Input
Amino acid sequence: MHDLIIRGASLIDGLGGAPKTADLAVKDGRINEIGAVSGPARETVDAAGLSLMPGIIDVHTHYDAQLTWDPQCSPSPALGVTTVVIGNCGFGITPNSPDTRDILIKNLSEVEGMSLTALRAGIDWRFDDFGSYLDLLATRGVVPNVAAFACHSSIRVAVLGDEASKRAATDDELDRMAAILRDALDAGAIGFASSTFENHNGFGGLPMPSRLAEESEFERLIDELGSAGHGLFMITAGERTTIDTLTGYSRRSGRPMVYAALLHNSQVPERTRNILSGCRTAQAADVPVYAQVSCQPLSMNFSLDAAYPLYGVDPWGSLPIDDPAALRTALADPEFRAHFRRSLTQPVGGRLFNGDWDRVEVAVCAAHPVYEGNPIPTLAEKAGMDSIDFFFDLALSEDLATVFNAKLLNVDEETVSDILQHPDSLISLSDAGAHLTFFCDAGYGLHLLGHWVRKRGDFEIGEAVRQITRRPAEIYGIRDRGVLTEGAWADMLLFDPGSVGITGIERLHDLPAGQSRLVRRGLGVKGVWVNGTLVHDGVDYRDHTRPPGQVLTKFDA
Output
C-alpha cells in the first residue's frame, strides 16, 4: 500500500534533464517508486497536464524568530519551498540570556526590517543555546524542513554583551566564541554565517557585531569549521571581504564558502563580473567558492525614519534615528545634505543605493497623492529643485510619513540573465522572513519558472529546476533532498507550467501584536508536499496534528 501516488505528471527530477511523464509513489515520507506505478494508495492525485518537481530549497532566509511562533514559515511553503536555511548573515536569536535578548531583537528589528513589537510579543524564549533552540523547533514542529547556521553576531553578543558592536574581541573572548561555535556545530548547525557588509547596522545605527571582528577572529572561528569536518561558511560581504579572502578561508579550513549578496548594480557594472571571475578562478583550483545571486529586481518601500536602502550612504549611519525630532533637524541641515550629496558622487560596489534617483518613486504621499508613482527627478524638476533637496523636503513636509519605492539592483535583465547562468552562481537571496515592511522576495523560485523560463526562455525547465533544488542541496550538504529519485525524501511541488509565477505584494496584519508584513502569493501552484505530506493545496495550508517538516542536523561532508 502506497501512501500517495501522483499520476501522469511531467516529472522534472532536479538533475537538470528534460521532463518525462511518469507516475510517482510515496511511502513513509520517501519516494519509493517512479514509472508506471501499480497497486493501491491511500491517496491518488491526477496530475495530467501538470509538472512535478522537487520542493524548492531556500538557503537564504531569516525565519529564526518567526519559527518560534509560526511553524509554517509563511509564506514560503505556499510558494513551493520545502526546506529553509535560517541564520543567514550571522543574525539570529541564539545563544541568548535574559541580559542579551533585547540586544539581539533590537538589532534584528533594525538590520532585518522586523517589527520590534512583533518580536517582543511573539518569540518563545524557551531556549538559551543552539542545541536547545533546535530542540524547541523540533518540539513545536515545523512545516518545511529547517537547517540553521550558527550566527556570528549572536555569538559575539553572548560573549561581549553591549560591547559586541563597539570593539574587537580579546583572546579569552575568542576562546569562548570558538567554544560556542564548536557546540553549535556538534548540535547540528549547517555551518557558520557572518557579515561585514557596510549596510548592516543594528539598533541605534551601530554596526552589527560581526563587523567589529578582526581578521584573526574570522580565522579562529572558520578553523572550527575545519576541525568539525562539515558545514560551510556564508558571509554577506562588505568591501573588506573579497573572493580572494574566501578562497584563503576555504584553503585553510577545507570547507565551502558562500559569498552574498551578488546583485547587479548599473552604477558599478564591473563588480558582478569581477566577483564571478574570482569564483571561477577558485573553482578551477578545486576551491569551492560560490556567489549567491537573485533572479528578481531588488525594490524596497521605505520612509526616512527607517530608510534601509540609504544606510550605507555616509553620513546616514551617524543620524539620530532613535530620536524623531533630532532626526528631522538633521535631515534639514544643509551640511548633512552636502555630505550626503558628496557621498553619492562616489559609487560603492556593495552599497544598495548609489544615487540613481530615476529609480526612486513616491509610493504613498497623503499630502500630494498626484505625486504617487512618479520618479523623484520628474517631481523635482517641476518644483524647480534638485532631486536630493526635493526628496528630503517632501519627507519632512509629511513628518517623514512619505513612503518611497527604490528600484535598487538587478534592473538590467540582460546582464542579470548572464549572472544567473554563470556556473558559480547560486540562485537564492529571498531574505524570506526579513524586511517585512520593505519587500517580499520569498517567491523567487516561482518567479524563476514563470519569468526566466516561460516568459523569457533563458533557461530550459530542467536546468532551472536544478538550480533551485539539487544544486543548493549539493553545495550545502543537504541529504536526499532536491531530487525526485527513488529513496529521496518526498519534498515536492506540483504546478501548472503555463501559469506558474507570483503575484504582486499585499499587506497583511497577522504578525504578533497585529503588526503588518508584505507577502506575495503563488500562481499555478497545485500542491506542495513535505516528507510526503501535503502542506499547501495551492489555495491554503492544510492542518496537521503534527507538522511534517524535519529539523535537519546531519549533513554531507
About this structure: The domain at 56-297+410-442 is CATH 3.20.20.140 (TIM Barrel).
